[in-house]
Amino acid sequence: MNILDKIIVDKKREVILKKSIIPVSQLEASVFFEKKTISLSDNLRNSTSGIIAEHKRRSPSKAEINYSFTVEEVTKGYENAGACGISVLTDGKYFGGSLDDLLLARATVNIPLLRKEFIVDEYQILEAKAHGADLILLIAAVLTRDEIKSLSEFAKSLGLEVLLEVHNQEELEKSIMPTLDMIGVNNRNLKTFEVSLDFSKQLAAQIPNDFIKVSESGISSIEAINELKPYGYKGFLIGENFMKTDNAGKAATEFISQL
After folding, report:
1. What percent of the chain has pLDDT over 90?
2. pLDDT of 125-135, one tens digit each?
3. Within 13 A of 54's CA, how many CA atoms are on the CB side?
4. CA distance 71 to 204
């Protein structure tokens, strides 16, 4: 069983447990349920940098990236740097994140927030909305076409945007549907953790222009972004590159100003 399969098994168990403790009615009573969301796709369309900066403490491939910042410091730093949006990892076991991180980020900034999570159930989309997210991530590698359709439709019914992540041609072909706003190509193979920008380059032409193209993972230089822009990419998700420094906000500011 690869790491992705393990995460999904754990995630399904986690959702069952959470549903037994926190009823849907409690999530729907959140102050954020009536709040209008902020569009990341609009921000990316109108941006010259396209940076989506990520808050991430650790990952399965890197035991620890950074535990020394508060969520408020990181997200405020990203907003001040001019990021188009912020991705907040909410998985606890493998990434050291939580829904509290999302809540703190929402209390701190006024730019789009992505709940970065392994979504397998509508309940997690309700959680995202209740904790102040503006959009969710769906990962094609772990969902069927029908699941992508029903989960993306549900997200749209709550006013959330949808970023769908693919890694190869097969995942892309099964996923294209009108309920998506952005299609992200992950440059990291989630099964082997190998990273290559070629994944983004190879799939770019297959992504219809109705969707904003986002390149994710393994982007650590201005050159990489300049290399990907001619392929039609408008968004670039960067986490580790900023988080591994002493000051993520400052690193993001320097990076974006060079763009």
Report:
1. 90
2. 999 999 999 99
3. 26
4. 33
